[in-house]
Amino acid sequence: MSIYLLRRLNLFLATTMLLFIVVFWVSYQFPGERSYILTGISQPSPEQMVDIEQTYALDSSAPVQFLAYTKARLSGDFGLSVTSQQPVFDEMMSLIPASLELGMMAIIVALALGLPLGVIAAQTRNKLLQNTILALTLGGYSIPVFWLGITLSLWFGLELNLVPVNGRFNLLYPVEPVTGFLLIDTLLSDAPYRIAAFYDALAHLVLPTLTLALLPFTMVVRITRAAMVTVMEQNYIKAAEARGLSALQITLRHSLPNAMLPVLRTFGLMLGTIGTYAIITEVIFSWPGIGAWLVSAIFQRDYPAIQGGVLVTSMFIIFSTITVEVIHHKVNPSSRKELYGIH
C-alpha cells in the first residue's frame, strides 16, 4: 500500500506542476503590464515595483520566473483582485464553504435517491418498471444543466413561488459566520430567529441542489444497477441465499457494499465534470461560491482572480480525484493488485 500511495503522491505532484506550467504560460498571453497581471496593482509605487520584481523575478529568465511564480502562489500570494482590491486568497477562502456546501448536498441527494433506485432496477422482475427507471435516468443524463436550472427556477420559483431562485440566504437573517457552512452556522447561532434562518438557508439550497444532483444521480442509478446485477451472480451471494438469509439481508450486508465500489470509482472519474456543472449552477442561481466568482472575474478581466480561481479549483479536483481513487483501492485491494501488480 505504501508503494501505491507514493505513486499517487507522485501523480498529484506531477499533475499540479503541469497545471502551474499551463497557468503560468497563459498568464503571459494576458494583455497589459506583467506586474499588473500578477498582482492586480495597476499603478504600483516605486517601493511596490521593487518588491514585485523581487518576488516574481521579472528581470530573470522564464524558468526562474516560473519558480518564483510557483513559490508565491503556493505561499498564498495570489495578488489583489482588480475589482475589489482585496487579496484574492482571502476572497477565495470566504467563498469555498458555499461551494462545498452545495456540492456535498448534491452528492447526498444523489446517493440517497440513486442507490435505492439502482437496487430496485437491478432486482425487480417488472420489466416495465426497470425500463422506466433506466429511461428516466438516460433522459436526465441528457438534460443540459443550464436548461434544467432555468426551468426549475421558472416553475418552482417564479410560477409556484415555493422556493427562492437566487442567493444563499435572506438578508433579514444576519448570521455570524463560524464554519462558513450556512446550515451549520444558523444552528450554532444564538439568535432567536436561528430556526427560521436554518429553514430559509435550506430553502435556498433546494433548486441549486436538485440541478447539480441530476448528473451524479443518474450516474449512481445506472452504475449501481450494473454492479448489483454482476454482484448477484457471485457464488457468495448464492451461498448466502442457501443459508436462508432474506433478500433484504443479502442486499444490505453483501450485495450493496460490493456494488458501491464501482460507484465510488466513477465518482472520482467524474469530479471534473461535476465541478463544471457546479460552476454553471452557481451562475444560474447567483450562488455566492467560487464558481460564480470565477466566471465574474473572467467577464471583468480580473487576471489575478482568474489565475487564483483556476489554480485552486483545479488543484481541489485533482486532489479529490486521487483521494477517491486511494479510498477505492483501500477498500478494494484486489483492484490495486490487478492494476499495479502488487501482491
Summed up, what is this model?
Helix content is 76%, strand content 0%.
The CATH architecture of the largest domain can be named as: Orthogonal Bundle
Which structural class matches the secondary elements? mainly alpha
Percentage of residues assigned to helices: over 70%
Which homologous superfamily in CATH is the superfamily of the largest domain? Answer: MetI-like
Shape: globular
Order of helices and strands: HHHHHHHHHHHHHHH
Task: Report the count of strand segments.
Answer: 0
End-to-end separation in angstroms reads 10 Å
Mean pLDDT: 86
Report the portion of residues in β strands. under 5%
**CATH top level assignment of the largest domain:** Mainly Alpha
Q: Main beta sheet, described?
A: none
